[in-house]
Amino acid sequence: MDWTEITVTVPSENIEAAENIAHMTVPYGIYIEDYSSLEQEVLEIANIDLIDEELLEKDRAHGIIHIYISPEENPAEAVSFLRERLSAEGIEHEISSGSCDVESCLDSWRKYFKPIPVGDKLLIRPVWRDDYDPQDRIVLNLEPGLAFGTGTHETTRLCLEALEKHVHPGTKMLDVGCGSGILSVAGLLLGADEAVGIDIDELAVKASIENARLNHVESRYTGIKGNLADKVEGTYDIITANIVADAIIMLSADIEKHMDENTVYIMSGIIDIRLDDVLNALPATLEVFEQYEEKGWMCLAARKKKTALC
């Protein structure tokens, strides 16, 4: 079945706010066309000042957000949501939509993603891109497909930066809502001994196993289809949940039993207006000891409170 491509055109100065709204419709299958800083970006990335004529003719005053909706989702509902939220934010916008087959969608989507450094140690490399310099970074090879994020969104980057600080040799990791497996694979490449990824979506579990294989860490990775309460036992050194605020709130009831006194629980995918909701839902025995923010997205690191000795 065909996918639906929704395009949202907004003034360039509103592109970040509009992107955040777009990511509320789907957490995957999104790319941005923004040529407002074309010359500077080309010079920084390619170290050249000669730019293709076709690029020079692009509209610099507006950005375009492309959103791909899978056949199982409701595109009309997504368009309605986008109109409502953009209007509420006072963002001038034009929205159009049309169908596209999977291969056409993939071709359009892929050409806008390039290898991207994350944190101090990682380079996320889409597997179809060979034009990159690792610059002594650990290369994470990723085949996300339209159904998953590429690691370029703030929610994933913040989670990876937090993960980089806390993973160490011997770490046992749990990734809740694993999606493409990017966090689990990153943890293993950064030195974790083993990782378990769990997702209710069978496609996600298959994708995560394939990405573990692409990075030669499949022997240390386990992908599980199901929910946390029914399928996972024991405690972990690091738990990641890069999902959405409501899902993190639901996890709060069960997450503690998978934590010991030193477990680091990293939560991301939280828009700033939902931060208090997430904080209020956390068990009283947990404390947030690190907080990261980028473009209105929040990432938290929590652990169990230390019991004072009498």
How would you characterize the overall build of this protein?
- It is a single chain.
- With 310 residues, the chain is α/β, with parallel strands linked by helices.
- The protein has 2 domains: 3-110, Alpha-Beta Plaits, CATH 3.30.70; 116-304, Rossmann fold (3-Layer(aba) Sandwich).
- It has 11 helices and 14 strands.
- Strands 10-9-8-11-12-14-13 form a 7-stranded mixed sheet. The chain has a 4-stranded antiparallel sheet with strand order 2-3-1-4. A 3-stranded mixed sheet has the order 5-6-7.
- The N and C termini lie far apart (65 Å).
- Mean pLDDT is 84; it is low at 38-56.
**Percentage of β-strand residues:** 25-35%
Second CATH tier, the architecture of the largest domain = 3-Layer(aba) Sandwich
Strand order of the largest sheet: 10-9-8-11-12-14-13
Overall helicity: 25-40%
CATH class of the largest domain: Alpha Beta
Full CATH superfamily name of the largest domain: Vaccinia Virus protein VP39
CATH topology of the largest domain: Rossmann fold
> On the 0-100 scale, what is the average pLDDT?
84
Based on CA atoms alone, the radius of gyration comes out at 20 Å
Number of helices: 11
Number of strands: 14
The description of the largest β-sheet is:
7 strands, mixed
Along the chain, the helix and strand elements come as: EHEHHEHEHEEEHEHEHEHEHEHEE
Terminal Cα separation, in Å?
65 Å
Number of domains: 2
Question: What characteristic shape results from the CA principal axes?
Answer: globular
- Unreliable spans are 38-56
Structural class: alpha/beta
